Amino acid sequence: MKKRAAVLCGAAAVVASGLTAVPAEAGAPHAPETFRATAPAWKKCGTDDYPTLQCASVEVPLDHAEPSGRTITLALSRIPHTAKKYQGPLLVNPGGPGGSGLTLAGFVAASLPKRVAAEYDVVGFDPRGVGDSRPALDCAPGHFDAVRPDPVPTSPEVERANLDRAKSFAEACGRKYGDLLPHMTTTAAARDLDVIRQALGAERINYFGYSYGTYLGTVYAKLYPQRVRRLVLDSVVDPTGVWYDSNLDQNQAFNARHRAFMDWVAKNDATYRLGTDAEKIEAAWYAMRSALKERPAGGKVGPAELEDTFVPGGYYNGYWPYLAEAFAAYVNDEDAGPLVEAYENFGATDVAGDNGYSVYTAVECRDAPWPRDWAQWRKDNWEMYERAPFMSWNNAWYNAPCAYWPVEARRPERINTTGQVPPALLFQATDDAATPYQGAVTVHRRLERSSLVVESGGGNHGITLSGNACLDRHLAAYLADGTVPRGSHGDADAVCAALPDPKPLTSKAAPGTARGSVLHGLLGSRI
Questions:
Q1: Which residues form the AB hydrolase-1 domain (predicted)?
Q2: pLDDT, tens digit (0-9, with 9 covering 90-100), for 158-182
Q3: pTM of the model
């Protein structure tokens, strides 16, 4: 590590401070009377999977401190309630930031027990800047076009190439959306939720968030505790680390999941013929990475794209059989075709544009401070790389535009609620890589009267409505009548066993047929 870092000392980059200074948003919620929300005009937009889906839109202030000023449009979807007993709207969010929630509404309504789903209007929404909301951000189309520079900056030239990409992306966002970027924050998105609540005519909302959606939900509960009826948080973001520290913390956890994948491949040597020694299999994976640096597979998959392809396996082990087949074909048969196919299925980012990534950076870069001196990033990430080589540098470059972001960062919301918020229900896998376990414990302690359900031994990110009947029973009971478990299992109130690891494929099949795959396709592969 020290030798590699020393090579780069001559390329040290202190980031220029050409920032747009903007006032931080006020911490206290604005009075609901300051903006008059208009009821959505729902129209049919059903699909084969969700035929009763309806769509609409709602106007919200661009700047909630100026409610009479410019407005922007948020796209909504819903599956209407059908039961006589009505428990209000259940707003659902898949995370990101940058994830679209429109289809998630249909998935949640179809996956909950019918008697429970029938009592809610399950409402999806595209947060500001996302998907069908307008304006939608798309800072630099083609930013992830293959083949990108190697993420591991083993020379000043490689580091400079990656820094130039990060800086150009930040500059493109500033040029195209300079008027929007100051308002792309989790706090603003939480205030948007309250406008949606008003538009729906609800005194209180029920909320169900995955991944980053848990942070959005906790910020809403902090700002509007009296407006929360039920609060479900699955795979919980640690609010004390947003966002630089939390992204560093992910790296060791993803490295551990990558090694768990190698263990699984070793146990299935009869199928993959890569041996029974997980360490040697991992060495073969890194040898594949080195070979792709010299000759990208299909002209598309170099080291960066390879890591992009295998990162989703750290979110959901249902992808392991597909990734293992591609890995084995390349190593055993010198066949790059399956690897290119896996990249196109799992690794290619925003092939229709860069909306998701544009919103991700816009929110995370503005939400909280990031180091502006690249020397700090270099030091932290080389140290992390020595412990966790799998995706440390890939993750660093994914977030590196924040070092150059044209809008000054604000201070993150401090999450701490009182008895005004009804008991929340949290779900967390012990080995989740994207949102490590301790974050859920932190939020559990900060949300007074909350209950934590733990999936012991589980490594997936997004664990409810994915086939674990024990978890789903707790979810259904809570949504039915507010029941939460109260136990004494260490930090947890209830513990569910993880599902078994997947089995190798018995035939050629496209990913996405199992219910868990449907959910994880909706959640995406970055928080």
A1: 89-268
A2: 999 999 999 999 999 999 999 999 9
A3: 0.93
Catalytic residue at 121?
Answer: no
Number of domains observed in the structure of the chain? 2
pLDDT-derived band at 8, boundaries 50, 70, 90 = very low
Domain assignment of residue 513, yes or no: no
Q: Is 64 a catalytic residue?
A: no
Q: Does the pLDDT at position 30 exceed 50?
A: no
* Domain end marker among 407, 426, 447: 407
Domain that holds residue 191: 41-136+182-242+412-497
User: How many Cα atoms within 13 Å fall on the side-chain side of residue 434?
Assistant: 27
Out of 64, 143, 183, 461, pick the active-site residue: 461
Buried b (16+ CB within 10 A) or exposed e, 493-527: bbbbebbebbebeeeeeebeeeebbbbbbbbbbbb
Catalytic residue among 57, 133, 211, 392: 211
211 is catalytic: yes
Q: Find the catalytic residue in 432, 444, 472, 493.
A: 432
User: Is the residue at 508 inside a domain?
Assistant: no
Residue 469 inside a domain? The answer is yes
